[in-house]
Design goal:
This protein has 384 residues and is an alpha+beta fold. It has helices at 5-14, 16-48, 76-83, 125-128, 151-155, 196-203, 222-230, 241-251, 253-283, 286-294, 299-329, 347-373, 377-381, and strands at 55-60, 89-90, 93-94, 96-105, 107-108, 115-121, 133-137, 144-148, 167-170, 173-182, 191-195, 210-214, 236-240, 333-336, 339-342. Strands 1, 4, 5, 6, 7, 8, 9, 10, 11, 12 and 13 form an 11-stranded mixed β-sheet that branches. β2 (89-90) and β3 (93-94) form a beta hairpin.
Amino acid sequence: MLLPWEYGVRNLARRPVRTALTLVALATVVMLVFVVVGFIRGLERSLAISGDEDVVLVHSVNSEENIENSSIASRTPSLLAASLDGTMKRFGVNHVSPELYLGTRVATESGPGGLGLVRGVETSAPLVRRSVQLVEGTWPADGEVMVGRLVATKLGREPSELELGRQLEFEGRKWTISGRFASGGSAYESEIWCPLGDFQTATKRQDLSLVAIRLQPGRSAAEVQLFCKERLDLELRAIRETDYYASLQQHYKPVRVLAWFVVVLVSGAGVFAGLNMMYGSVAGRIREIATLQAIGYRRFAILLSVVQEGVLLAAAGSLLSGVVALLLLNGMAVRFTMGAFTLRIDSVAILIGCGVGILLGVLGSLPPALKALREEVATGLKAV
């Protein structure tokens, strides 16, 4: 025979202060789990949606995976457009985007900023970077830039400092912000875009970092890769954009492993918090537990009731943390080496966070309950 469900609920209400403190402790632990899992999910999503299956990146063979270190000749885009048949072309315009990509110190009007990511582009860039959408203002003219919606986070500045008409300073020049763009949460949203010619003049460079080519649907990147291998004099390397961002995911794999390790450590701390609460709770109820056994309740039924208390408390803490995470954490922008991205509290994060919370309730309840049930009934009835 099992104990009534209401019995465990009433036991929690009998110790309101202890119950409230434990609820806060468990909710805090689960909230930390949500933060770490949201960080992992946000990073993975940002890299996953940044690539386009139809886009191939051509960069220097010596740059390895770091395109910032790439340097290719300025004539490369015209050579690629003339030599490749699979390039998308519409109304006489080749969907080829020559770009100069650089990490540099960016200052705002209110003071020195942080390390920003600047991409010099031409008007053909939106034909290749199809996820980029201008949401406010105009395309940058000479001496102007447009900023992604996460640039303020990347620079560590207030969003008001990057409003239209404000100025940024980098590479020894001042630039006026003419527009803002979004890209569906991709890595581009933490970048500053400016006219390629202006950027080359400011950096005193005539070369490019990369050329992005949009292929016709169904065409293979092998054609571009074959061209790069045949033209050894150009020292080029071609990689499909999705493969490039997949390699970045592998690059950040140690970070994700460390984040999961933090989840384990935080969960372990939560188990100890639950153990502390349940040991204190059960220690004062030895006579009660012995009485329940004396009137005929089996040890399994009593064990189940004690575990029920821990699970109820953990479930309440998980629910509270889940609501707070969805309202406050979901979509929060954070800085990272690759730029900036938003925390993502999705169904997977909710499942992991609540699962950890319930697990804390079970693991925190079992040891003290088993310890109390090992006491002899006669000894327990004499306990004070």
